[in-house]
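User: Hi! I'm working on a homework problem where we have to compare a predicted structure to a textbook description. Could you give me the structure for the chain below?
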Amino acid sequence: MTFSAESSILINVDRNTISSPIEQGRTDGVGEPWAIMRHGKPLDDRQQTLLDQLPEYDSRVEVDKSGVSMMDLAALTAKTDVEYAMFTLGDKCLIVRGNETKVNIDKIDAVKMNAQGYEWTGHTHVGRNLIPSVGDKDVLNAFRHNSSTIYNSYGECFDFYKDV
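Assistant: Happy to help. Predicted structure tokens:
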């Protein structure tokens, strides 16, 4: 039993009927980058659907911002050993599939995307690497905002900033 101060009424809550509270998440490792890397766990259904829409190098898909996270891209990297990048415009995200060492967005592309209003949310690196490359910094310097994030195959992340 829990007590609701707002209504001053006792409320019966059967915690066993709550299948997956938001704050709890999955506990089986499915869709978790570290579990994919260490234990060969699969992507979750939502991540697999995203991967199916990005079958090869330079594939691109636009999705609702609420339906994807950088951790999802880290899971895709853990599964495929290639990089992914996310660019946000309003309530949409553009996801771009790369290869083992890069995503096909250069400084010229970044200048055009910035002019359209995109922000570079982040990208992934294969393995444990979290160090931004010269190309990463060149792309970030083409955007108005000052920082972006790198996630690796294990779901670890690192924020990096423009050179001033």
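For your comparison, note the following. The longest strand covers residues 84-89. The first helix runs from residue 33 to 39. Good luck with the assignment!
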